[in-house]
Structures
1.
Amino acid sequence: MEKTVTRQRLLLLAACILGLVVTAGLAWRAGVFRGEPSAATVGGPFALVDQTGRPVDETVLNGKWSVVFFGFTFCPDICPGTVQALSEATDQLGAKGEDLRIVFVSVDPGRDTPAQMRAWIEAQGLPDGSLGLTGTPDQVAAAARAYRVFYEKKGEGPDYQVNHSTAAYLMDPRGRFNRVLAYGLTPEQMADQIRAAMRGD
C-alpha cells in the first residue's frame, strides 16, 4: 500500500514538473520573459540607402551617438512629432548635440524614395548630419527585424497609412544599443536620457 502511494506521489510530481516546463515554454514563446529589448536583441546588419541615394550599412552609425527611429514621411502625427522632439532635444544638449545624429528609417519603401526622404528631412528642419534611410521592401523588412520594429500597411489607394512601432533607439558610437527612448517623452526628458547615456549612467 505504501509503495503504491509513493508511486502515485512521484507520478503527480512528475506531471506537475512537466506542466511547469510546458507553461514556461509557452510563456517564453509569447515573450513574457523578454521585457525591454536588450543590447543583444536590438540592432545589427542592414543595407539601405540614404537621402542622397548613397548605399549605407550599419557602420553608418559608428563615430557618433545615434537615435534610430522607424516611421514614414506620410505619417500625420507620430513621426513628425517624434523627430521634432528629437531635434529640440539635440538643441538642449548644447555642445554635446554635435555628438548626436538622428537616423530616420522608412517603413514605407513604396512611397519613401531617397528624394522624398530628403525633402521631408529638410521640411522638418532636422539638424545637419541627420539621415533618412530607405530601400527595397526586403531591405526595409530586414532592418526592421534587426531593431524589433513592427509595421504593417493599413488601407488601400495612394493615401494608405502604415501602423508601426513608436519607440526610438539610442545607439552608442560603436553602433551598439544603449536604451529605448519611449514615445511621448518631452524634449527635456529625451535630452536627460541621452546625457545620462553619454555619461555612462
2.
Amino acid sequence: MTDALMDESGVTDDSVVFPRISTGNPQADAILCGGFPAHSINIIMGQPGTGKTIFAEQLLFHNANPARPLLYLTTLSEPMSKVVSYAQRLGFFDIDQVGTGILYDDLGAKLIADGPAALVPHLLESIKSLSPSVVVIDSFKAIHDIAQSTWEIRRLVSQLAGVVSAYDMTVFLLGEYTQDDIEQYPEFAVADSIVQLERNTLGARDERYLRVLKLRGSGYSEGRHAFRITSNGLAIFPRLVTPKFESYVPLLERTATGIDGLDEIMGGGVWRGSTTLVAGPTGSGKSTIGLQFALEAHRQGEAVLFVNFQENPAQVQRMIRALGTDPEIAYATGFYHLYRSPVELQIDSVIVEIFDFIETANVRRVVIDAVGDLSTAASDPHRLNDFLYSLVQHFVVRNVTTLLNLESAPGVTGKREEEQRWSYMSDNVLVLERTEGLAGERTIRVVKTRNSDHDPLPHRVEIRRDGVHVL
C-alpha cells in the first residue's frame, strides 16, 4: 500500500509516494492512514498486558512471506516458547507460516552473555542468511536493564538505525515504556512512528485505548481509539470525528412518528434526518414511544435499528408483541435490535456497530434507549462531549431519522447538565412528565422543534395495550 506525503498543514503532495506496511487490522490501518511506513523504526509501547505482542504478531501473520520472511526476536522478557504457545490460541495464527514466512528467534542467552552489544551482530547475521523484510524486537525496553550506561544504549540505537537505513527492512521495537521514558530514551528520537497502547481501570472493567504519538511524513487520526483484545487479535474502534458536509443534501420531507396524536402537535411529524430527544422520568412511556417510533419505520418498509441497554432481548420481544407485531417476522424483515448490557458498555464499540448496521443494512431510522447509559459508560467528560456531537452529526449527514430517550428528573428539561447537552444537539425536544398520586397522570410537551410549527402546550398521555396515545 502507498500513501502520498502530507505536510503539517494537511496538504497532500502526490509527487512523493512511499510504501506502507499493513497492520492486518483495517481499523488500525485507517488510524495510521494506510499502515506503518516501510523501511522505518517503529515503537509499540505500553504497560504489560496492553496487547503489544498480539498487535505485533497480527501484523506479522498478515504480511507473512516465505520469499522474505518476517523475524520475531525475543530478548529478556518472555521466552520464545511462551510467545509461540500463546500465539497459537489466536485466530490469525497459521502454523504453516511458522518456520517459513515467520521465524521466531530467542536472543536472551546472547544478551545475558555479551550484553546489549550482542543485538546488532546477531541481526546482521540474520539479514545475511534470511533477508527479513520485518523484524520485531520484544522487548527492546528490557535491554536497558542490562546496559552499563546510557551511552551504551545510545550507541546501540545508532547502530540499529544504520542497519535499517542500509537494508530494505522495517523494525518494530516493543517495550513496557512509560510516558516519562519518551523524553529519556534515545530510541524515541530516531523512531519514525510511536504507537501507545494503554489500559485504564473503570470500576469492575478495563478500558483499553490505542494512540498514535508520532508518525513521520504522514497524517494520522489523533486521539485515543478504544479497542478490545479478542481471540482474533485487537478489535479497534476508531474515535468518532465530525463528518464532512460537502455532499450532504437534506431531505425536505416529513415522516410519521407512529404515536397517535403526536404528529399533530409537532406540525405533521418529524423531518427526515432529524434528531428527536424524548426526556422523562421512569414510567413516563419513553421506551414504548421509542418502540412505536421504530415499528412505524418498519411498517413503512424502512430498515430500522433499535438500540437499548436496559431491557434484555426477551423483554424487548415481549414489548414488540404487545404492540401488535410478531417480533420474529419483524426481525426477518428489516427490524434490527442491538442490545448491550450497561455493565460492559463501551461507547466506541457500540457506535461502530451502529454505523455498521447503517451502512450494510441501509438503516433509515435509529432509536437509542437510553442515551444516559452512554454518558454513564464514558470515563472522560470532554471526550464524551466530542463523541455525542459527532454521533448526532453522522446521523444528520446520512439522513437517518433518530429518536433518543433520556432518563430525566421530574420537571422541565434543562435541570441537569446531561439534559442540556442532549437538548441543544437535538432538532426536537419532547418532555414527558408524570404526576404523583393515585391518578398518576402523564403529559407530553413539545419544548423545541426546528423549522416547524408546533403546539407548545402540555397534552395528556395515555398508555394503552396498543401503545402511547397523545390526547
3.
Amino acid sequence: MINGPYIEYMKNYAAILLLPVLISLSTYGQPNVLFIAVDDLRPELNCYGASHIQSPNIDRLAAMSTVFNRAYCQQAVCAPSRNSIMTGLRPDAMGIYDLYTFFRTKVPDVVTLPQHFKNNGYYTERVGKIYHTGHGNRDDALSWSQPAASMWRPEPVTRGDTVGLERDFPAIDDLKLPYYKSHAPEKNMTDAVITEYAVNRIAELKDSAFFFAVGYIKPHLPFVAPARYWDLYDPEDISIPAVETPGGMPPLALHQFGELRKYHGIPAQGLLDHETSRNLIHGYYAAVSMIDAQIGRLLNALEENGLMENTIVVLWGDHGWKLGDYGSWCKHTNFELDTRVPLIIMDPDNPNGQSSNSLAEFVDIYPTLCEMTGLPLPKHLEGQSLVPVLENPEFEIKQVAISQYPRGKNLGYDRKKEVMGYSIRYGNYRFTRWQLYEDPDEVVAYELYDHSEGPLATQNLASDPAYVGKLKELNDLLSKELARYSTGTSP
C-alpha cells in the first residue's frame, strides 16, 4: 500500500514537472490587442445609423463588437486626445492642451498603455499615427518594443504644369488642395502603405502575444482618396448643413476653422460657398470609405492567420469633426459634434454585435484593456473599465463624460491660455462652463444645450428662466466631477 506522504510527494513532483507547461499554456492563451486609430473620424458611419456612408468593413467589425453610441474624447484636438488615451490621464493631469508639448516633459514617469503591456510580457509595436508626432511633438520610445517603421511618403510626383502631385498632398502654387479625386494607384497612398506593412506584421506576429497599434492618417485633411471611393457617392445626394449657430451661443464657443483656411481656394474669413462645401463633404466621405477598406484588410489578416478568436480589436477616432455644421469646419470646440467619437470594441469571448448608450470616455480604454487581458491596473488611471458594458450594454458606468478646450489670449507661459471651457454630457444635456484658467472661480460664460433631438445644438438654454434649476444641477455636478480629478474649482 502506498502511504500518504509518498502520494503527497508525487503530487508536488508532478506539479513541478507541469509548471513549464502551465506557464506555456497561460502565455499562449493571452489575448492579443489590435489597436486601430483613425484621425478625424467622426461617428458618421453606417453602424452608427448613417446609412448614406459606405463603411461595410467597419460595419463587419461592429457586427461582432460593442458599439459605444455615447463615447467622448477628453479634448477635441489630436495630441491632447491621444495623450489621454495612451496615458489614461485627463489633459489637466498632464497640463497639456496643445499640439506641441511632448507628454513626458510633464509626466516623465507615467506608464503608457502599450508600455504597460510591454512590461507584462507583450510585444508592442505601432505603425502610422498613434501619438501626435507633428508640430515638434514626437513618438514615445518607451511604449514600443521596437522603433516604428516610417510610413510617411510625401515625395512629389509632377503631373501637368500647375499641379505638383504628392501621394497624399496634391498642391497648386505651393498650397495644398483641401480635397482631390486621385487617379494614382491606391498602393501609393500612405494609409495603403501602412496597411500593407500591418498585414505582413500580423502574419509574422501570430505566434506572439502582441499589442499592435495601427494609426491611419485619413480622413484628416486634405481629403485625398482614389477615384473609386469618390464614385461611391453621388454629389447630388450630399446636403449642405445649415449655417445657423445656436441662439445665445457665447462667441468663444465656436472658432474660425483656421486649420482648413490654410488650404488652396479656402477664403481667409467668412462662410464657404455651397460648391466648395459639397466637394469637401464628398472628399471626406471618400476618405472614410478608403480607410474602411484598409480596416477590412486588417480583419482579413486576423482571419487568415487564425487570430480572430484570440484578438481584442479596438477601433477609435481621436475626436469628432464638423462638416459645415454651424457654417464651421474641423474640430477645436466643446460641442457635441467635436467631442463625440466612434468607439468600437471587439471582445473575442463575446463576438456578438451590440450597441450601448452607456457613457464612455477615452480615459476608460486603458483600464478596459487591462481587465480584458488580466493585467494589473496602474494606480494613476483616471478612467473606469468598460468591461461591465461589454458584458451588458445596458450597464451604466458613469453619470457624465468630461471634455475641455482652452480659449483666449496666451498667458505667456507653458502654452497656456486665459480661459478653459469644461463640458459635460449628462443625459440629454451638454453643459459647458467657461472659466479663467488662473482664477477658476471667475466664470466667463455658460452653455446648456438639450440634445434630445440629435447632436446639433439649436439654442443655448443657460439664460432661460425655465432652466435655472437644471443649470445649477449641472454646474454643481461639473464641480463635483472636476474635484475628483483635482482640476478646476467652481464658483
4.
Amino acid sequence: MVGPNGVGKTNLLEALHVGAQGFSPRTRAEPRLVRFGERAARVQLEGTERGSPVETEVTLAPGEGKRLRLNGAALGSAEELRSRLAALVFVPDRLAVVKGGPVVRRAYLDRMLGRVFPSQAALPAEYGRALAQRGEALRRVRADLSTRAAVEPWTERVAELGASLDAARAQLVALLAPGFAVHADALGVSAATFAYEERGLRREDLETRLDRDLERGTTGLGPHLRDVEVRVDDRDLRGFGSQGEQRTAVLALLLAEAAVLAERRGAPPLLLLDDVFSELDAGRRRALLEALPAGGQTLVSATSADALPADAREPALVVTVRRAGDASVAEVA
C-alpha cells in the first residue's frame, strides 16, 4: 500500500485492525474514531480463513456501546472476535511496548495471552476484578466499615488467579523468547532477550503484608505490578536503547508471535505493518520480508514502492492511496 504522507494509509490499516480485532491499535478513546459530524463509524470486512468465508462488522456509536458481528452473529465482546481471528499490527505508536512503562507491557502481554491461549483470554480481566474487590474490602476495613474477615475471601481469590496469570505469562514469554532473539538478530540487533520471571502468588504472602495493604488501601503484591524485560546484553532497551533498537525489538516480537500463532492455529495471522521500512536499510528490509510467515497475508504501507529492496519478490497487490477532497481513496494497481 503506497501513497505520500498524510493521505490516510495509517487510517486504512487502523480500520482493518478494528474490523478484525474490535479495537484500535492507536487509541482507547473510541469516540475519536468517529468522523466529525457523524453519529457512528462502521467497519465491515470480508475474507477467508483456512478456506472458510469470514465476515465481520464493528460499529462504534458514542454513548451506545460497541456492536460486533461475526458471520452475522452478534458477539458479546471484542475478546470473542479476537479469539476467532488473529491480526497483528505494527504502527509507530507501538514503540511504547518497549519505551513505555510497565503497565503498557503488561497490557500488551495480556492481550497476546488471549491470542495465543484463547482459553486464558479472560484470566487478566478476572484477576483485575478480584483485585478491585480486594481493594474495596481493604478500604472498607480502613474506614472502620468492615472487618478483616471480609478481606479473606478476596485474598484467596487474588492469590489463586494471580498465580495462574503469572504462570500463563511465563509460559507465553518462554514460547516467544527464542523467535524474538532470532528475528532481532536478523534485523541487526544481536543478543536480544525477552524474559519474564515467574514468581507466583501465595495467600500466605498476601496475609503477611495485610497491615501494609490496609494502610494503603491496595494490594501491593502480585502480577499487576510485574514487568517483562526487553534487553540487549545487559541493557534495558526502555532506558538504554536507541530508537532503532526499540523499533527492531517491537518488530521482532511481532514476528515471533506471528510464528507461534501460525503453528498453534494452523494458519498465519493477518499482519498490518505501517511505515515499517522507514528506518531500515536494504539488508534489514530484505530480512524482514523473508521473516514474514509463509501462506499468510501481510499489508505493508510505504510512501512508494521503491521502499522494497530491489531484489524482493513482487507484491501480490499494490494499493495506491490518495486524497480526494476530505476523503481517502484506495485504488488497486
